[in-house]
Amino acid sequence: MGSTLWQKKNRWSLLCSIAASMPQKGRTIALSSSTGVRGGRGETTFEMAERDGQLRVFIVAGEVSGDSIAARLMISLRRLSPFPVHFAGVGGQFMGRAGLNSLFPLEDIAVMGMLELVPHIRKLRRRLHETVEASVLFQPHVIVTVDSKGFSFRLHRKIREKFSGHEEARPTQIHFVAPSFWAWKGGKKRLLNLPSILDHMLCILPFEEQVIRECGLEATFVGHPVMEDDLELKLEPKPHKWEGKGGQRRVFVHAWAFLWSIYISSSSSSSSSSYFAGVVMDVTIVIHFSLVGAPVVTLLPGSRLQEVKRMLPIFMETLELLKTHCPELATIIITAPNNDVKDHINGIIKRCPLPIITIPGESLSEKYDAFKVSRAALCTSGTASVELHLARLPCVVAYRAHVLTELLIKYKTKLKFISLSNILLETDIIPEVLFRKCTPENLSVVLREVMFDSSGRERQINSAEKLFKIISPPENLPRYLVPAHLGAAFVPRCPSMNAAMAVLYSARKHCRGF
Question: Quick one: pLDDT at residue 58?
């Protein structure tokens, strides 16, 4: 009871801080009868911010991949906006670093699946209500949701209901990452409902833009967010550097566990080097892969706790089977920036006899350094497979869900593949082991082929260039000319910059019936 009261007080304090932090200028919104012309276009986000002398953005991400996308968007908006930018909303660690004080933990709404949602419905409804109330109190010029279409579209619908009859006071409503309408039977039909709750859709695949426009909703292709990794890696300071000394390849990584005999250099001069199996440590490890001769497999078991609980045990059993053919096998696990996921993975590692270290997924440089030392990767479906393709690391995509969810997916999908690379390239360039076939026995066979079959490895590596030409940001933004006052602030061919430009110059559409 005490904890519940504390949580309620904490949320109320946060809501009050949202209101208190807003400058007085432009804070009062009169919900009077609309005098605007229905069916027309209202002010752009930029015009509203110019009028109030500040830009207020309410931004929501419901999962880790969306958290990263939203954080980059926040940074780009600050760079492009000539006015002070204030953020409120829901996000995770990335958005927190970008300056967001999240209304509640992102993990509370990071739930995927169909039947898997049932145990969480009450919490999701409560969080949705809190988010709606906080957004109205914040009085934003624009509301941006990122991915997580279930929660996001319900939020936008509630916002429209809140401003029914007061259209001139409604913020611009934008969603970033279009729903995968192309993957589902009848998916395009469902797009027809979106113009009634959204003003603009930001697309990460080029073919989505035209289809969404045909359904009556403004849309802009901004480029796939993973293409921004390359830009960020060039700018990110890298304390964990590759060195080529004496023919050795070595990488400095922060790890929790050290389970095999390699050289350990303490990160602190006062702490002594030691070898402990299964003991949690915080040390800097220098891995001499050329001396150890250990092929490395990187695991990416997912960003949501429920999928990690389902997939990681399968992955671990797969490695145990693989180790009979490759005794010197070493393993890296990329942990998503989700505290529940990290705790769960660390708990498993302590009990696991395999040599494993973990790399924090929130560090882009460390993650891609791990890809560089790896022979192959095993990942769940999602953004991870595209990241691995960017890194030219051959991989296997695996996925399991609740048995009834799997049956629904098989019945409703119209695609042959599940990974984005295969879908866009229209071929099974990346092996997929899915649903009931996703067993340790099957995975170990396929993963061994990916590790040691040179022709299959070359096919994956050589196909990367073709994929990236498809998902690269457009050369220019024909519908959003870069204003002269932005000058060097705008970075061309950068997805988050393109998205920020679209957010600033989107206009809310006055719809009849609201």
Answer: 98
Whole-number pLDDT of residue 310: 92
Distance CA 467, CA 392 (A): 11
Do 204 and 326 have their domain in common?
Answer: no
Residues 191 and 210: beta-carbon distance below 8 Å: no
Q: What is the pLDDT at residue 116? A: 60
Cβ atoms of residues 206 and 472 within 8 Å: no
Q: Which two tokens stand for residue 153?
A: 């579209």
Q: For residue 281, give the DSSP letter.
A: -
For residue 114 the two structure tokens come to 């169909």
Same domain for 427 and 307: yes
Residue 230, by phi and psi: left (phi above 0), alpha (psi -120 to 50) or beta?
Answer: alpha
Question: What stretches in the chain show pLDDT beneath 50?
Answer: 1-9, 12, 16, 19-21, 23-40, 237-291, 478-480, 512-514
376 and 452 part of one domain: yes
Q: Is 435 left (phi over 0), alpha (psi -120 to 50) or beta?
A: left
Spatial separation of the C-alpha atoms in residues 68 and 28, rounded to whole Å: 32
pTM of this prediction exceeds 0.85? no
C-beta of residue 145 within 8 angstroms of C-beta of residue 106 = no
465 shares its domain with 478: no
Longest dimension (CA), the chain: 76
- Determine how many CB atoms are found less than 10 A away from the CB of residue 233: 15
Which residues pair with residue 144 across a beta bridge?
Answer: 59, 174
- Residue appearing with tokens 């932005």: 486
State both tokens at 263: 């050289």
CA distance 387 to 395: 11
Q: What is the pLDDT of residue 11?
A: 54
Tell me what pLDDT residue 30 has. Answer: 32
End-to-end CA, the chain: 41
If asked whether residues 147 and 93 sit together in one domain, one would say yes
For position 505, what pLDDT does the model report? 92
- Three-state secondary structure call for residue 15: helix
User: CB-hemisphere CA count at 13 Å for 115?
Assistant: 9
Q: According to the model, what pLDDT value does residue 275 have?
A: 28
Please, is 465 exposed, middle or buried when counting C-beta atoms within 10 Å of its C-beta (0-12, 13-18, 19+)?
exposed
Position 117 scores a pLDDT of 65
- CA 259/CA 310 separation, integer angstroms: 24
pLDDT at 112: 65
